[in-house]
Amino acid sequence: MADYESVLKGKYPAKAHCEKVVAHLRNALDEKDVPTTLYLQGQTTHMQEDNDEAAPFRQRRHFLYLSGCLLPDCHLTYHIPTSTLTLFIPPSTPTASSGPACLSLPPGPLKIRHRRLPHLRRPPLPPPRTRRPRHHPLHHRSWRHPPPPSDLTSAFPTLNETTLHPTIDTCRVTKDAYEIALLKKANAITASAHTAALRKIPSATNETELVGQFLCTCVSAGAKKQAYSGIFGCGANAATLHYQHNDEVLSPSKRVVLIDAAAEWEGYCADVTRTMPLHPEGFDRESAQIYVIVEQMQNACFALLKGGVKWEEVHELAHEIAVEGLLSIGIFKRGGEGDDRKGEIMRQRTSVAFFPHGLGHYLGMDCHDTGGNANYEDEDPMFRYLRVRGTVPEGAVVTVEPGVYFCRFIVEPYLRDERHRRFIDEEVLERYWDVGGVRIEDDVVITKDGYENLTTAPKGIEEMMRVMYSEADG
Ligand code: GLY
Ligand code: MN
């Protein structure tokens, strides 16, 4: 059994999260301003417009963090003086089953209490307070849109949303063992889906078939939701950072296919990108060169990781490796004797043309998780889209996702700007447009002295080719 499975036999640490949030509030506020009770409402059921079905449900992340509850129409309170976490769930009443919502009838309290147990024939559980939040069905006629219990809203009217919200955002940055186990499980399923999609490449004729293979693998493994809208792009589509059509014909002349897709497991996201050759003989020369550069970028960044690392420095290192790589293959013109060509290109930010996004982001209940303090107004284009700023603490989970792309829409303005154009050899560049783009993305947890890679999907040219062909018919 995988190590994370034994951790997941335990309980979601909702109460520990409440305590963490309260400790942060106590640090930030005068004691007199610390509330006695936290009250949060979960996501309510929403109907689709002009339709009698509910819209896809996604639990509010702050609510999930403090409750572990993935059901709609719930509320929670955390009474700080007594450390009491209480979950209010909608009742399962006969009236509820008479309408369209009967399809999503909530489980009763017993089922909730058992949700994370491996099977139901376990010895009797300890009292609910020690295992899960206490819960009370809400006796309200329209349970699908229950208002907060009135005694709560009148008794605790002044909970400070503007303080609580960013406090939870910050608490979510560092993950505990249970959250890491959830992220490992999401990654394990994601790895099997990437493997299945990889094996499908030799016989697939359209990007849609890779999507189908990927989703089939995730759902069959119990992961019914994707962590984000997947990207399945071949050739030039790989250069579109958030390509969503995922329906173009695959042909070896398109050189590469980039798959950026991942499963969600019980509200926690993986985020994994792999770029593979489309041609049965593997990458062509140009694609292989770009793959190796991106691999070098990622490996160099990995080597810097440890608790307290400054994320801007890691991102900058990725650019430096990209510049060295693009100089070595001649896309950036080499300087004369004694020129600091790499330094000049770095100072002008010309590499942003080919690596236009941030190196990575926090990962957790959201794919782009909270607490990164991005500055999208930054005047420096190298850091404008960096979703994590400042130091990365031990226990944080980040993606490391360098890429090199040949996107006309992004690169061509650089070719019209003399500041950048003088560094770029357009004749050499001409051979690379068809590569599209290469990105390699793994999820890592930052440790005191390094990192642990949570991502297990096949990676590297040799391994991907082995998986793609030797097991293609297996
Ligand atoms: N993999 C999706 C993203 O990071 O934007
Ligand atoms: Mn990502």
Automatic annotation (TrEMBL):
Gene3D superfamilies: Creatinase/methionine aminopeptidase superfamily, Creatinase/prolidase N-terminal domain. GO terms for molecular function: manganese ion binding; metalloaminopeptidase activity. Residues 129-144 have a biased composition (Basic residues). The lineage of its organism: Eukaryota, Fungi, Dikarya, Ascomycota, Pezizomycotina. It holds the Pfam family Peptidase_M24. SMART domains: AMP_N. Its EC number is 3.4.11.9. Catalyzes the removal of a penultimate prolyl residue from the N-termini of peptides. It comes from Ramalina farinacea. Keywords: Aminopeptidase, Hydrolase, Manganese, Metal-binding, Metalloprotease, Protease. This is Xaa-Pro aminopeptidase.
